[in-house]
Amino acid sequence: MSHDNCHHDKKFAVINPSKICQPMGAVQALLGVKDTIPIIHGSQGCSTYMRFQLTRHFREPIEVASTSLSEKTVIYGGEFNLMKALKNITEKQTPRMIAVASSCLTETIGDDMVGIIEKFKDANQDLPIIIPVSTPSYTESHVEGYNRTIKALVEHLATKSVPTGKINIITGNLCPADVTRVKDILKTLKCDNIILTDTSENLDGPLTEDTLSLYEGGTSVDEIEDTANSMGTIALSKHVNSAGAYLEKKFGIESISGPLPAGMENTDEFIKSLCTLGDYEIPDSLEKDRGRLLDAMVDAHSYNYHRKVAIFGDPDFVSGMTRFTAEMGMIPSVVCTGTESKIFTNDMNLISHEKGISPVVLAGGDLYDMHRAIKKTGADILIGNSYGASMAKEENIPLFRVGFPIFDRLGAQRISTLGYKGGIEFVDRLTNTLLDFYYDEAGYEIIEEETDVEKTLNTYPVMEEI
Ligand code: SF4
């Protein structure tokens, strides 16, 4: 593994960031909670930006309220606006819960969200549950915003009563199809569970005549309260695990963190984690799915063997995909996440060591860094979200779109990569992308004509650089 330090010479700016701000993570987590309205305590632009990104990705109407702060707030504070927003929502709608996430502005001016919410509660009756989530967007990323939100949910709601024998699953920011893949595995094992949080319906809903009012699918407040009575928590992420740690500390519920079940080994690991917490029998159907993934990988091997792959996105996703593509016989050449994370670099060390690969690792990198690294190491395919399109075009390599946001293609909510079944889909689609790009219609590899210069270089011994 090598650490590219090409970004150290331009610390003053980030160019094409590969991360989003904390409140976006909060919204992503809250969209999986039933009957809940997220409010961004910030300027109108924040919630508009989030709705815009989420709507063009999921192609669903997204409801995010805003306290619409203006310049005056910087001087007088945001109390009036937050009170007004809470009043408006509670008068016009009847959510079970309102979650208020802070933004750059309100964190910078030091608004006391907890105090304001308490004041509102004291002055009003018959209110929904209102919880504050501190998501200062000038540090960390949407991954930490998601993490803080799940933690805030269990901190405010989890209540000890009767043990249920359920397993809490913290999904992290997954697409609806992948949440469904994970739920399918749990169902196959007959594992009762609570998903934190379940976006599978709200973000991939059927077209109905009703206009959207409150999210009908998702994890209920009752379920979140019940997380204190489960027998264990598994986070499918090494970065979104604070809620698991909280439940372990407060209620003695065993907590396991990661990895994201992408590919053969990580899915095996997930099932192993489930079996260490509960007494689950692995049915034939799951063994068969595993065998089918292996078969798909063997079928695809001759096409993607030793192809170089560059991967960017959220840290757990990039770790998972790096291991998965290495399992497939590909060579991860550049891996990049926007989140600065020691966990990520440690993961990469481990995967590199185990798989005998040495990718350029960019933790806290941007797409500018990544593009420079690709120019040095080369890549045959890029895996990541729509922001990779221009880079792929310039390098004349295909972009395999997965992650968030995907706005230049349809079906982002249905791209599944997790579990054995999602893995099969991923192997097929990734290999077909390579076939489209590097193979002719008869299935033969297109060998590029060598240029005269290359011919000369290949014919005569090359002088060693002095
Ligand atoms: S970075 Fe700050 S201003 Fe921009 S959308 Fe996020 S919270 Fe709002």
State the gist of this model.
This protein is of the alpha/beta class. 46% of the residues lie in helices and 13% in strands. The protein has 18 helices and 14 strands.
CATH architecture of the largest domain: 3-Layer(aba) Sandwich
Unreliable segments of 5+ consecutive residues: 1-8, 456-466
CATH class of the largest domain, named Alpha Beta
Major sheet size, sense and barrel closure: 6 strands, parallel
Work out the strand percent: 5-15%
Question: Strand order, biggest sheet?
Answer: 1-12-11-10-13-14
Portion in helices: 40-55%
Tell me the Rg in angstroms.
Answer: 24 Å
Number of strands: 14
Indicate the overall shape.
globular
Distance between the termini: 25 Å
Derived from helix and strand composition plus strand pairing, the structural class reads: alpha/beta
Mean pLDDT: 90
Q: What's the assembly state of these chains?
A: single chain
